[in-house]
Write a structure and sequence with these properties.
mainly alpha; 126 residues; 7 helices
Protein backbone atom coordinates (compact mmCIF):
# COMPACT_ATOMS: atom_id res chain seq x y z
CA UNK A 1 0.00 0.00 0.00
CA UNK A 2 1.13 3.50 -0.72
CA UNK A 3 1.58 6.09 2.01
CA UNK A 4 -1.45 8.02 0.77
CA UNK A 5 -3.62 4.93 1.09
CA UNK A 6 -2.36 4.15 4.58
CA UNK A 7 -2.88 7.77 5.61
CA UNK A 8 -6.46 7.61 4.30
CA UNK A 9 -7.09 4.42 6.28
CA UNK A 10 -5.69 6.06 9.42
CA UNK A 11 -7.98 9.05 8.87
CA UNK A 12 -10.97 6.75 8.49
CA UNK A 13 -9.88 4.94 11.69
CA UNK A 14 -9.94 8.23 13.58
CA UNK A 15 -13.32 9.18 12.10
CA UNK A 16 -14.79 5.83 13.16
CA UNK A 17 -13.30 6.30 16.64
CA UNK A 18 -14.87 9.74 17.05
CA UNK A 19 -18.21 9.05 15.36
CA UNK A 20 -18.63 5.66 17.01
CA UNK A 21 -17.78 7.03 20.45
CA UNK A 22 -20.21 9.92 20.12
CA UNK A 23 -22.92 7.64 18.72
CA UNK A 24 -22.47 5.10 21.50
CA UNK A 25 -22.84 7.70 24.25
CA UNK A 26 -25.89 9.32 22.62
CA UNK A 27 -27.67 6.10 21.68
CA UNK A 28 -26.97 3.99 24.76
CA UNK A 29 -26.70 6.87 27.29
CA UNK A 30 -24.30 4.95 29.53
CA UNK A 31 -20.59 5.52 30.00
CA UNK A 32 -19.93 1.76 29.93
CA UNK A 33 -20.79 1.49 26.22
CA UNK A 34 -18.83 4.60 25.30
CA UNK A 35 -15.81 3.39 27.26
CA UNK A 36 -15.98 -0.10 25.71
CA UNK A 37 -16.06 1.19 22.15
CA UNK A 38 -13.66 4.10 22.60
CA UNK A 39 -10.93 2.11 24.38
CA UNK A 40 -11.01 -0.77 21.90
CA UNK A 41 -11.11 1.53 18.90
CA UNK A 42 -8.26 3.67 20.25
CA UNK A 43 -6.17 0.54 20.86
CA UNK A 44 -6.70 -0.65 17.29
CA UNK A 45 -5.99 2.77 15.82
CA UNK A 46 -2.74 2.99 17.80
CA UNK A 47 -1.91 -0.60 16.86
CA UNK A 48 -2.31 0.17 13.14
CA UNK A 49 -0.11 3.25 13.46
CA UNK A 50 2.60 1.31 15.35
CA UNK A 51 2.59 -1.45 12.73
CA UNK A 52 3.07 1.21 10.06
CA UNK A 53 6.00 2.78 11.94
CA UNK A 54 7.68 -0.55 12.65
CA UNK A 55 7.38 -1.82 9.09
CA UNK A 56 8.42 1.50 7.57
CA UNK A 57 11.57 1.64 9.67
CA UNK A 58 12.29 -2.06 9.12
CA UNK A 59 12.14 -1.81 5.34
CA UNK A 60 13.51 1.70 4.92
CA UNK A 61 17.12 0.59 4.63
CA UNK A 62 18.49 -1.48 1.77
CA UNK A 63 18.43 -4.56 4.00
CA UNK A 64 15.76 -5.63 6.43
CA UNK A 65 16.71 -4.61 9.95
CA UNK A 66 16.09 -7.60 12.18
CA UNK A 67 15.95 -5.60 15.39
CA UNK A 68 12.98 -3.72 13.98
CA UNK A 69 11.18 -6.95 13.16
CA UNK A 70 11.58 -8.11 16.78
CA UNK A 71 9.34 -5.19 17.73
CA UNK A 72 6.35 -6.78 15.98
CA UNK A 73 5.96 -9.75 18.35
CA UNK A 74 6.63 -7.47 21.33
CA UNK A 75 3.93 -5.08 20.14
CA UNK A 76 1.54 -7.98 19.69
CA UNK A 77 2.27 -9.27 23.18
CA UNK A 78 1.74 -5.79 24.67
CA UNK A 79 -1.55 -5.46 22.80
CA UNK A 80 -2.74 -8.86 24.00
CA UNK A 81 -1.88 -7.96 27.60
CA UNK A 82 -3.65 -4.61 27.26
CA UNK A 83 -6.80 -6.24 25.85
CA UNK A 84 -6.74 -8.82 28.64
CA UNK A 85 -6.32 -6.13 31.32
CA UNK A 86 -9.18 -4.07 29.94
CA UNK A 87 -11.43 -7.12 29.74
CA UNK A 88 -10.57 -8.31 33.26
CA UNK A 89 -10.49 -5.02 35.18
CA UNK A 90 -12.57 -2.68 33.01
CA UNK A 91 -16.32 -2.38 33.29
CA UNK A 92 -16.97 -3.06 29.60
CA UNK A 93 -19.74 -4.27 27.37
CA UNK A 94 -18.27 -7.10 25.32
CA UNK A 95 -20.32 -6.33 22.18
CA UNK A 96 -19.22 -2.69 22.01
CA UNK A 97 -15.66 -3.73 22.84
CA UNK A 98 -15.63 -6.22 19.94
CA UNK A 99 -17.08 -3.61 17.58
CA UNK A 100 -14.31 -1.23 18.68
CA UNK A 101 -11.70 -3.92 18.04
CA UNK A 102 -12.95 -4.21 14.45
CA UNK A 103 -12.26 -0.53 13.68
CA UNK A 104 -9.37 -1.25 11.31
CA UNK A 105 -11.43 -3.82 9.42
CA UNK A 106 -14.30 -1.34 9.10
CA UNK A 107 -11.96 1.39 7.88
CA UNK A 108 -10.48 -0.96 5.26
CA UNK A 109 -13.96 -1.86 4.01
CA UNK A 110 -15.02 1.80 3.90
CA UNK A 111 -11.81 2.74 2.10
CA UNK A 112 -12.38 0.07 -0.55
CA UNK A 113 -15.99 1.13 -1.05
CA UNK A 114 -14.87 4.74 -1.49
CA UNK A 115 -12.24 3.61 -4.02
CA UNK A 116 -14.85 1.82 -6.11
CA UNK A 117 -16.81 5.04 -6.57
CA UNK A 118 -13.79 7.19 -7.45
CA UNK A 119 -13.13 7.94 -11.10
CA UNK A 120 -10.58 5.68 -12.72
CA UNK A 121 -8.08 8.51 -13.28
CA UNK A 122 -8.08 9.36 -9.55
CA UNK A 123 -7.70 5.68 -8.58
CA UNK A 124 -4.53 5.35 -10.68
CA UNK A 125 -2.89 8.27 -8.89
CA UNK A 126 -3.36 6.77 -5.41
Amino acid sequence: MKDATIAEIERINLMILVIGSVASIFIMREFKYFFSFAVASAMMTANFRLIRKILTSAFSAATIQKRELVKLPLKFLALAVLVALVMIYGDIDILFFMIGLSTVFLSLVIHQIVLVFRPHSVREET
